């Protein structure tokens, strides 16, 4: 008998049963290279689809990235089963207790806690890059009075790029950020500094009040509250320190969360080497959606709709029959309580001490307790996430509901920038370009108009083929 040598332990051996071909792939960091599967090519049989591209090897199909690591990163680690989160090795609980938002932002972006001198300079710099160009203020001021603040935030960052031609690789050369660390740092500082000002401006527009110039002698969150709430610069208003501190902790908790939808967007868009302002606008757009940064707003709307504790059982029945979603529960990575939600629950009490108890909290607590006892949530490992409580704090602090995603976006700017910088410096320099499985029509020849059938949607009244949408009767009468 010939002894077959076992493959090395840290490898994966795969046999393609179509051809008998075997490949052995190294397992590194408990992962395998998806490109290794390109070696498994096959010849299509009769009836196989040409579009399945047999000649280029097996594709790895992973819609919604359920099990695909798109980057390797040194920034943030989440143990979803244990409910543990750390940034650059530091547990989130320690950062929330001992750090502040700007220091955590520095840690995320530059990899280490700053020294005393570095911290001073960093905070000074960020707080001295808080002004927006006058013309940008005019753009923001021209938005509709009832615009969603996230629309303003996204638009302001997209427009901000136009005010920073020196930051634009399309104008300055594609390797701008590889060759010039000063430009990279300058724009990181600018973007963090201006994010709070844009946020405050988005609120002032809606109140139809003039913008208030930022104050560089305040902390990041104090200044943001000041720009939102001061009646005028001359008034000498200083926000409540307890609220500024609570917001600062919330900002630490929201600063980064590895490859979430908006951070993945930042990395994806950034991989084209577009300027960071445009990439931030794209990331903010991703965060705007109700399944991501819009969830804290959705939680409050949901709890308001439930209204009273006695309506909870019926609501949970509707969730179980998939008529409703329990916003603020569930997470792609956490299969345990989100550690941030525990910290936020404690911050909530500090805020209630300052501004009064939020009446919806009792319904929220009862809803959480009922869900955590229910088999539907237990079996699916659905626990409260960060958004479950944050909205209640923001509501207690008097922020309008549609402003909540802004309070997520401003601190997340730090995480977006950390990933953007890491991708540029340590990524493989390739543009992100996922593959797809084409399952549509096979190749066919163009049909002339007279050869096409009218089988689609025919409006019975007018007899014309229409797309189902709201048609203007006046316009359609001309057809
Ligand atoms: C966050 C979220 C998008 C993660 O989604 P995901 O990882 O794709 O999880 P899935 O949608 O595959 O959920 C798995 C199962 O749990 C159910 N589920 C997940 N979250 C749920 C929720 N909040 N309410 C009710 N059911 C939920 C799904 O319907 C699915 O049930 P099924 O097995 O019967 O089909 C999802 O949990 C969600 O929509 N939560 C509410 C929105 C929210 O709070 N977002 C903020 C995240 S920080």
TrEMBL record:
Pathway in which this enzyme or protein is active: Carbohydrate metabolism
Active site: 331, 387
GO BP: monocarboxylic acid metabolic process; tricarboxylic acid cycle
InterPro entries per record: Citrate_synth-like_lrg_a-sub, Citrate_synth-like_sm_a-sub, Citrate_synthase, Citrate_synthase_AS, Citrate_synthase_bac-typ, Citrate_synthase_sf
Record carries keyword GTP-binding: no
Keywords attached to this entry: Transferase, Tricarboxylic acid cycle
SUPFAM superfamilies: Citrate synthase (SSF48256)
Xref: Pfam families: Citrate_synt
GO molecular function, one term: acyltransferase activity, acyl groups converted into alkyl on transfer
UniProt similarity note: Belongs to the citrate synthase family.
UniProt protein name: Citrate synthase
Native organism: Terfezia boudieri ATCC MYA-4762
Source organism phylogeny: Eukaryota, Fungi, Dikarya, Ascomycota, Pezizomycotina
